[in-house]
């Protein structure tokens, strides 16, 4: 699973086609979409027309839990829209209040993996306790937990809990919530001659978190992926980590 992916939330219609195409041209090899985004067909079209081999791109989509009982049908619709016979990662998009429903949906996900329709399965917006509940019920742990994440939300305890369970932390909305205008992030960016978005993406990668920045502007899509030419120092990483701690106090 590439640590850098292209997020497509709120990108629809022709914008989704052109943005996804720009991402693939810029070197992204991980695409993140979802049933509720309403853009799987556009993402699939961009991938099919890109000239990039399907096996070279890691594709994630998500199933809303209100499709309980129709998981297989929902997945088959996603595969048709994406023009592929499998996805690399299928996530439960959010949790519900019903433990029985959470278990039943997860069991359907396990069955889809066993049928070869998905390479791996995971969850989104789940707590460690809810993840443990799934594992206790089925013996199968999620590969990934996709959560809202940025330096401003950094929680070392949560990082440890997911690492202890050998579950990948994937962050979404990293470039929202004031991160691009935060003084600490902007200061590091100015000193390094980089954009705040590049600093945030680089922070994810150095921690081993998966980042899925999104944009509809080709120049920003390319810039967000241009993070290999610099490194954040230990002091920079500590300063960024501290933003989340200070907010929780």
TrEMBL record:
Pfam families: Aldo_ket_red. CDD domains: AKR_AKR1-5-like. Residues 4-243 form the NADP-dependent oxidoreductase domain. The record marks 62 as: Lowers pKa of active site Tyr. GO terms for molecular function: oxidoreductase activity, acting on the CH-OH group of donors, NAD or NADP as acceptor. The keyword Oxidoreductase applies. Substrate binds at residue 93. It comes from the Bacteria. The active site is at 37 (proton donor). The keyword Transit peptide does not apply. Keywords: NADP, Oxidoreductase. Belongs to the aldo/keto reductase family. This is Aldo/keto reductase. It comes from Nocardioides iriomotensis.
């Amino acid at each position: 699973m590439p640590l850098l992916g292209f997020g497509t939330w709120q990108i629809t219609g022709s914008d989704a086609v052109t943005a996804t195409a720009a991402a693939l041209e810029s070197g992204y090899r991980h695409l993140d979409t979802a049933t509720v985004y309403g853009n799987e067909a556009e993402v699939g079209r961009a991938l099919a027309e890109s000239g990039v081999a399907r096996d070279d791109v890691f594709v994630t989509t998500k199933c809303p839990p209100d499709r309980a009982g129709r998981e297989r049908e929902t997945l088959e619709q996603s595969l048709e829209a994406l023009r592929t016979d499998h996805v690399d990662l299928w996530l439960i998009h959010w949790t519900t209040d019903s433990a029985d429903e959470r278990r039943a949906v997860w069991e359907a996900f396990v069955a889809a993996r066993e049928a070869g329709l998905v390479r791996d399965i995971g969850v989104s917006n789940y707590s460690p306790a809810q993840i443990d509940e799934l594992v206790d019920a089925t013996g199968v742990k999620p590969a990934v937990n996709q959560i809202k994440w940025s330096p401003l939300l950094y929680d070392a305890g949560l990082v440890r809990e997911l690492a202890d369970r050998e579950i990948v932390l994937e962050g979404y909305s990293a470039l929202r919530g004031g991160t691009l205008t935060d003084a600490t992030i902007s200061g590091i960016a100015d000193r390094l001659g980089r954009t705040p978005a590049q600093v945030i993406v680089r922070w994810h990668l150095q921690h081993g978190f998966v980042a899925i920045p999104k944009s509809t502007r080709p120049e920003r899509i390319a810039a967000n992926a241009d993070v290999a030419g610099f490194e954040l120092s230990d002091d920079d990483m500590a300063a960024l980590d501290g933003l989340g701690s200070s907010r929780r106090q």
